[in-house]
């Protein structure tokens, strides 16, 4: 089985700041991977290393190539959209399309035009005259028209309206994704992507906190809305997180006895957002409590 | 180079034209317009003082009778003079273009888009240098050629009015094929001669945190000031080799528009213009340009340029949006 991304002890330090601090990663093809983490956790640095935009220590191979040495070759098979609109502002839309067509051997003009057909993006407009949403539409059309093996999206829908975001993800899933391709997404809007993800990565302080398939996550983590009279009992069972919603106590368990959990309350699949809070939030909560104590 | 690299390079160079139409399209067209405006303006003004253009037409008839070599000197000289402003502006445009060529993409973050395309950093840097050394001079040369043809056409109309044969009076002495090849060769060799200056600007634009052209000027200026200060303090004399002066001298002794056959020593006090023999060989000569290839400074400069370009590629490879 060929791996799309293979990292062993991947590190990137900026002085004393350990942006990426020893990540091990194996992503096969045909996956949609969500890389989720708080601001400053090292998401963007990790993506930059994968895309050959920054140096790194440790081992990293993307599609069998070394990204820091062979970025130009790698980019024949990898596409990315950064968290901000980065299309050249001086260019006209047709110029951007023509340059991509001439510089990228796997670009298909027909496909690009197909994606642009339903937008308001006009060929002769300058990029700087397009609205933010239209720039993103243009960039996505360009990228989805490239027959790449790995697509990296860093906050692709930041600042776009909900209609566009929904359509974007359904396009991505229905028209773009297949078992040959891999998509790596970072986003803060976890709710929108959790239904399309096959794999989940949580990153915190440069380290991976969670690295599992969605199936394994659903297998392992359980959310229980506990009946009021069982709260103490639930607390005794080592939940990893507890929150209160409309007076109901909701506990998150890592593993645990299913039969027992069913007795004390209703069993749910935890949402990625809740899991994220449970696994990453403790530090913030502790921080708050120490402040309160002081 | 494979076909694909050539087509990639051509696309990258066209990209430069798209990005800076002011520098490479509108600037030369504006000079063309200005040149023609002043010529036509001059002719109209002249005709107001010259009743029925008797004086002008008489002068043209006299000109048709002067010896051929003098006709050649006059016509080629006039056409060279027409090209002067174009090539001076070209040099100025290139200095600004090169000093921002790797900086703008970092500033507006479009470097992330360019780096998402399968184009190596070497190709990118080379495309900027080739645009400055080949494409931009070629565009300016084409517009110079158009200007010269229009000037000759105007002269032809006057020639007909004076009742002389404009072909033998103007077109033949203009020796256009030679004139244009001399200019083309001059531009090519100028590109090599100024390559260290160009490469220095590209190098500064590849890492300067802001205003790369100021950095590019300030660094040699400060070095040469320090050199002066040190040499005045230590031996109470001017430095023998001064970085700033070397760069200025190289810019000043560029090949075009000043590719004139006489050499003026910058230290010399007595320039006797009477010693200069005026003939078209002053500027209509291939050897004036080719002679630069024999100078050791030319090759030292190219060596320095290659080192600076390697540095630019190194910085481009590491550059991202932050």
Automatic annotation (TrEMBL), chain A:
Which Gene Ontology terms cover its molecular function?
ATP binding; ATP hydrolysis activity
The record ties this protein, via InterPro entries, to: AAA+_ATPase, ABC_transporter-like_ATP-bd, ABC_Transporter_VariousFunc, P-loop_NTPase
What domain of life does the native source organism fall in?
Bacteria
Species name: Wenzhouxiangella sediminis
Question: Which residues belong to any copy of the ABC transporter domain?
Answer: 5-230
Keywords carried by this UniProt record: ATP-binding, Nucleotide-binding, Transport
Tell me yes or no: is Transport among this UniProt entry's keywords.
yes
Q: Please state what the protein is called.
A: ABC transporter ATP-binding protein
Could you read off the lineage of the organism from its UniProt record?
Answer: Bacteria, Pseudomonadati, Pseudomonadota, Gammaproteobacteria, Chromatiales
Q: Cross-referenced PROSITE patterns, in alphabetical order? A: ABC_TRANSPORTER_2
Keyword DNA damage on entry: no
UniProtKB/TrEMBL annotation, chain B:
Ordered alphabetically, the record's keywords are:
Membrane, Transmembrane, Transmembrane helix
Any stretches that span the bilayer, and where are they? 23-45, 73-98, 138-160, 180-201, 213-233, 298-315
Q: What is this protein called?
A: Uncharacterized protein
Query: Which organism is this entry from?
Result: Wenzhouxiangella sediminis
């Amino acid at each position: 089985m060929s791996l799309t991304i293979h990292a062993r002890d991947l590190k990137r330090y900026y002085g004393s700041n350990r942006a990426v601090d020893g990540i091990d990663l194996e992503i096969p093809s045909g996956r949609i991977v969500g890389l989720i983490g708080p601001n400053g956790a090292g998401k963007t640095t990790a993506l930059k290393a994968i895309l050959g935009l920054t140096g790194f220590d440790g081992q990293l191979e993307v599609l069998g190539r070394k990204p820091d040495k062979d970025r130009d070759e790698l980019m024949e098979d990898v596409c990315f959209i950064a968290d901000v609109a980065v299309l050249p502002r001086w260019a006209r839309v047709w110029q951007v399309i023509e340059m991509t067509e001439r510089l990228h051997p796997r670009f298909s003009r027909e496909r690009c035009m197909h994606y642009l057909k339903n937008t308001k993006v006009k060929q002769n407009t300058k990029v700087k005259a397009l609205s933010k949403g239209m720039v993103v539409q243009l960039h996505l059309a360009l990228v989805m028209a490239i027959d790449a093996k790995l697509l990296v999206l860093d906050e692709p829908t930041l600042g776009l309206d909900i209609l566009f975001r929904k359509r974007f993800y359904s396009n991505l899933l229905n028209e773009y994704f297949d078992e040959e391709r891999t998509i790596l997404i970072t986003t803060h809007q976890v709710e929108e992507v959790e239904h399309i993800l096959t794999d989940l990565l949580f990153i915190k302080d440069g380290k991976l906190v969670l690295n599992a398939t969605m199936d394994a996550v659903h297998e392992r983590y359980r959310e229980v809305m506990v009946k009021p009279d069982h709260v103490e009992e639930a607390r005794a069972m080592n939940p990893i997180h507890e929150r209160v919603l409309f007076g109901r106590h909701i506990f998150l368990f890592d593993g645990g006895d299913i039969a027992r959990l069913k007795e004390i309350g209703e069993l749910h699949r935890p949402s990625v957002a809740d899991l994220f809070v449970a696994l990453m939030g403790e530090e913030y909560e502790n921080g708050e409590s120490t402040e309160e104590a002081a | 180079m494979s076909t694909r690299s050539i087509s990639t390079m051509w696309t990258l160079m066209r990209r430069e034209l798209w990005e800076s139409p002011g520098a490479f399209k509108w600037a030369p067209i504006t000079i063309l317009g200005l040149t023609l405006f002043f010529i036509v303006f001059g002719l109209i003004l002249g005709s107001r003082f010259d009743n029925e253009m008797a004086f002008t037409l008489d002068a043209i008839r006299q000109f048709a009778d002067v010896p051929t070599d003098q006709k050649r000197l006059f016509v080629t000289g006039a056409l060279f003079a027409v090209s002067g402003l174009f090539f001076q502006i070209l040099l100025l445009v290139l200095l600004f273009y090169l000093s921002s060529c790797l900086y703008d993409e970092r500033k507006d973050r479009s470097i992330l888009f360019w780096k998402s395309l399968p184009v190596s950093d070497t190709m990118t840097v080379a495309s900027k240098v080739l645009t400055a050394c080949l494409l931009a001079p070629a565009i300016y040369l084409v517009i110079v050629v158009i200007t010269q043809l229009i000037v000759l056409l105007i002269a032809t109309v006057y020639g007909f009015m004076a009742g002389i044969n404009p072909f033998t009076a103007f077109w033949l002495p203009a020796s256009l094929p030679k004139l244009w090849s001399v200019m083309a060769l001059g531009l090519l060799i100028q590109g090599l001669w100024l390559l260290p200056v160009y490469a220095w600007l590209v190098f500064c634009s590849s890492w300067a945190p802001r205003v790369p052209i100021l950095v590019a000027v300030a660094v040699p200026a400060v070095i040469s000031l320090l050199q002066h200060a040190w040499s005045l303090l230590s031996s109470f004399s001017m430095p023998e080799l001064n970085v700033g002066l070397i760069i200025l001298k190289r810019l000043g002794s560029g090949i075009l528009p000043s590719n004139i056959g006489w050499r003026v020593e910058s230290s010399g006090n007595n320039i006797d213009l009477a010693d200069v023999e005026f003939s078209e060989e002053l500027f209509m000569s291939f050897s004036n340009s080719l002679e630069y290839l024999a100078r050791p400074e030319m090759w030292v400069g190219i060596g320095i340029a290659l080192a600076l370009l390697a540095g630019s590629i190194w910085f481009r490879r590491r550059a991202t949006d932050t």
